[in-house]
Here is the input.
Amino acid sequence: MTEVVETVAALRAQVNAWRAAGLKVALVPTMGALHEGHVSLMRAARQRADRCVVSIFVNPRQFAPTEDLDKYPRQLALDLDKLHRAGVHLAFTPSVDEVYPEGFATTISVGGPSAGLETDFRPAFFDGVATVVAKLFVQAAPDIAVFGEKDYQQLCVVRKLCLDLNLPVEVVGSPTIRDAEGLAMSSRNAYLSPAELEIARKLNKALRKAAAALQVGADETATMATARQEVLDAGFDGVDYVEARESLTLAPWRRGAEGRVLVAARLGKTRLIDNVEVRKT
Ligand code: PAF
Here is the structure.
C-alpha cells in the first residue's frame, strides 16, 4: 500500500529514514489526474531509485486568474489507487496552506530557457513552477526527480533551476507517452469532446512532418508556417506558437543542431502543448 503523508515534517521523516538506510530516493512531482504518462514517470523513477515518492499538488501559483485552477481535474482516491498499483512507496498530498503558509512571500524566477514560448502566453507560469519545484526539492531532498518531456520547456527550466542553485538533484527527462494515433497523454485531454479528440490527434502529425522537413534541410520559416496552417486546417481554433528551438538551451534552432519543434494550440476551451525531436544532422 502506498503510504500517504500530508505534511512536510512527515515527508522529511520518511525520506530521512530511507536515506539513513542508504536508499536512493526518486521524486515524481505531479498535479494529480494521473494517466499513463505519469505512470511511465513512476516506472522510470522506480528503475533508477530504491524508493519512489509522488507529490500530488495542484499548484495555484502556476495558474493565471483566467486559467482553469478551479476546474483542473481532482481525483485523489483514483490517483492513490494508481500510485499503489504502480508500486509507489510514498504519496505527498499537501494542502495549499502547507505549501504556501500565511505570509509566504518568495518567488523563484528562472531565466534562460523560460524565455518565450509558454512565457509569452502564460507570463507567471514558470515562476509558479520553479517556486513549487524548488520547495518540493528542498522538502523531499530526493536524489533524482523525473519529469515528462511532454512539458519540454518545463523540463529545461527545472534543469536550469538545479544548475543555477546547485540543487543536488539529478533531473531525468522521460519520453512522452502517446495514444495509438500519437496524441500526447495530458490531464487536460479530459476536457476534450470526442470530436475535439479527433482534431487533437492531428497535432503530433503536423509536428512530426515539420521536424522531418527540418532534418532534410527545408527552410525553417516556411516549415513553421506550413505546420501552423496544418494545425489550423485540422480544426484547431488558434496556434499560440510553433517554433524550432535547440534541445538543451531552447535558444533559436540552428540548422543541423539537435532540436525540438514545440507547439501550443487552442481547441475550444482547451490549450494543448506538444513537441517532437529534430535529430542532429
Ligand atoms: O507538470 C506538472 O504537473 C507541474 O507543472 C509540476 C511540475 C508538478 C509543478 O506543479
Q: What stands out?
A: Strands lie at 3-5, 25-30, 51-56, 90-92, 144-148, 170-174, 238-246, 259-267, 270-278.
